[in-house]
Recover the amino acids of this structure.
């Protein structure tokens, strides 16, 4: 239980640090409304939510086309500069130099997750690739997208226990709060290591020998 809590704390701490980095870069502190990164005051952000039916917890990525067309012009321009809704993420679990896709891996085995991130926009942009399961952070990597496409690979080690393992990959733009893209990988079957049934012969030492 303590180990599980430790893994959960590590994942939450990582996500909290990423959100803090985003808040600093977007000048929108974590205790303010996420819509403030569009150049809106907290009061203006609340009016947008109330008038357009945006949920209280919804961020920039949750804005629908019907919301965007009603934004103030300066906020719409700020939104257009962000990759929200324009980032496409794909990920495949692969093994070996041939990058063969896999659906099963031995417990404790090593493999890779090949990632392709497509983003519309201009100029280099930094993203964090965050791979996790339901309990812990699995891998974290920072990539810089110089054009419209970026390819990366994450090194992964399977858990030591067998069973079905589900992984989720998120792409987080460093210049705005919230996640830009999210993809769930097909469940991997982790095969448990075979038990050692060999019986070693006992070594007896006779008295006086």
């Amino acid at each position: 239980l303590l180990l599980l809590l430790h893994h959960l704390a590590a994942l939450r701490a990582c996500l909290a640090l990423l959100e803090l980095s985003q808040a600093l870069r977007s000048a929108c502190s974590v205790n303010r409304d996420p819509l403030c990164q569009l150049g809106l005051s907290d009061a203006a952000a609340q009016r947008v939510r109330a008038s357009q039916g945006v949920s209280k917890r919804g961020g920039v990525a949750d804005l629908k086309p019907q919301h965007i067309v009603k934004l103030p012009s300066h906020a719409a321009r700020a939104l257009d500069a962000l990759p929200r809704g324009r980032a496409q993420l794909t990920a495949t679990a692969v093994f070996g130099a041939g990058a063969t896709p896999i659906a099963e891996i031995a417990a404790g085995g090593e493999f890779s997750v090949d990632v392709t991130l497509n983003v519309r926009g201009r100029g280099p942009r930094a993203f964090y690739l965050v791979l996790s399961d339901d309990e812990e952070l699995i891998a974290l990597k920072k990539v810089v997208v110089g054009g419209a496409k970026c390819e990366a690979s994450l090194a992964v080690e399977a858990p030591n226990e067998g069973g079905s393992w589900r992984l989720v990959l998120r792409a987080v733009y460093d210049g705005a709060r919230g996640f830009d893209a999210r993809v769930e990988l097909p469940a991997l079957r982790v095969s448990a290591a075979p038990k050692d049934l060999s019986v070693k012969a006992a070594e007896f030492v006779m008295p006086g020998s």
Residues 2-26 form the longest helix (25 residues).
